[in-house]
Amino acid sequence: MGYVEKKVSQDLYQQMRLLGHAARDAADKLTRVNSKVKTKALMFAADAMRDSASLILEANAVDMERAKERKLSSALLDRLALNDNRVTSMADGIESIAGLSDPVGDVIAEWNRPNGLRIQRVRVPLGVIGIIYESRPNVTGDAGALCLKSGNAVILRGGSEAALSNAAIHSCLVQGLLKAGLPETAIQLVPTQDREAVGILLRDMSEFVDVIVPRGGKSLISRVQQDARVPVMSHLEGICHTYVHASADLEMARQVVVNAKMRRPGICGATETLLVDRAVSESHLAPLIADLLEAGCEVRGDTLTKETDPRVKHAEETDWGMEYLDAIISVRVVEDLEEAMDHIRQYGSGHTESILAQDEHAAKRFLNEVDSAILLHNASTQYADGGEFGMGAEIGIATGKIHARGPVGAEQLTSYKYIVKGNGQVRPQ
């Protein structure tokens, strides 16, 4: 490494350490802030976002132009793109988070011991959260707001493709913090797109950062899991399934299947594989495939699916475990509920699965026996979203089983401590 490169590396290391120090100080200050002040800050931030909509869209237009020059996929472009409605939705989402009950200080459980001790389990912030994400600028607003609501300081590191959009949105959050009298360092955005900044955040800031939340593609998640020196709350691939059971109502299935895939194909809750019971393959399969094709979706299927419609392409083995994030779906005919669940166990990512069935017993088995973070009955997988769950927004869908699972909202960004009250008790020898 030459002198210049070494100097740049050292400067970046110091810059990241300063972010960490500031975040830790801000987290300490937030422990002494009441809920009303946090709510005010979020409401001010939402107002600032609406007032700055034109600036945000101008920044996003530049990001979009650069992304097209880099030939990003249509799915990534859709995630990156902002318009008036999406900016308004971001502001509305921040207001929704502001209106949630504050999880900090909630008594989760309490009990008395025979010796007179009173024990409480109480929610507390995690501390400092590092969030690494790609493409979606709305994550900047959602993540910043959720962390503040739960009393955490946050260091945000968005992808280079959304750098200007993220900066514009972050500016609105900072305006809200300052107007409410809170430290602007409670929500920080890493100011450089140097990839080494991510490495420093993962490896060299364990004294400041309490947990890392990655949100992005497989390569990002793998890197974070491999390099992180602090706990990771993983958001893995969304290989989501919709299963049409033998008892499924055809008209309901037609509506749900198209929505589950095509409402927004590039989100993690989009259905990637459709499973159809052989018992209804003659009645249900052809109209479902036709609906998807007419909606502009490429269909890749097994032998029976291909025989049903000549427009269907052959599905390779790799298709069953593919997160397309695009207008593509794989379709397979299964013998029954057992084979459908076996397929999901083999190829799924533990994210979201839906069963379409009028048979309550079959639905109950599916919901009880499939081990994914979110399971739905007679509803679109696109409901895998914290906002739709009443959480205001989400940082991501956690697919692990430690600490949080499913949509990660404000409550999931807390831990707990025990408070024990006595009147002079001492432990016997």
Descriptive report:
The structure is a single chain. With 429 residues, the protein is an alpha/beta fold. It has 2 domains: 3-235 and 395-420, Aldehyde Dehydrogenase, Chain A, domain 1 (3-Layer(aba) Sandwich); 240-383, Aldehyde Dehydrogenase, Chain A, domain 2 (3-Layer(aba) Sandwich), CATH 3.40.309. Helix content is 43%, strand content 18%. A 7-stranded parallel β-sheet has the order 10-9-11-8-7-12-13, sandwiched between helices. It is globular.
Please give the share of residues in helix: 40-55%
User: What characteristic shape results from the CA principal axes?
Assistant: globular
CATH-level-4 superfamily name of the largest domain = Aldehyde Dehydrogenase, Chain A, domain 1
Largest sheet: 7 strands, parallel
Number of helices: 14
Q: What's the N-to-C terminus distance? A: 62 Å
Global mean pLDDT: 93
CATH topology of the largest domain: Aldehyde Dehydrogenase, Chain A, domain 1
* Structural class determined from secondary elements: alpha/beta
Characteristic key phrases:
seven-stranded parallel beta sheet, alpha/beta, Aldehyde Dehydrogenase, Chain A, domain 2, 429 residues, single chain, 43% helix, globular, four-stranded parallel beta sheet, Aldehyde Dehydrogenase, Chain A, domain 1, 2 domains
What can be said about this structure in brief?
The protein has 429 residues and is of the alpha/beta class.
List the helices and strands and how they pair.
Layout: H1 3-30, H2 35-51, H3 53-69, H4 74-80, H5 84-99, E1 107-112, E2 118-125, E3 128-133, H6 138-149, E4 153-157, H7 163-179, E5 187-189, H8 196-203, E6 211-215, H9 218-227, E7 240-244, H10 250-262, E8 271-277, H11 281-294, E9 298-301, H12 303-308, E10 313-314, E11 328-334, H13 337-347, E12 352-356, H14 360-369, E13 374-377, E14 397-398, E15 406-407, E16 414-421
Parallel strand pairs: 3-4, 3-6, 4-5, 7-8, 7-12, 8-11, 9-10, 9-11, 12-13
Antiparallel strand pairs: 1-2, 2-16, 14-15
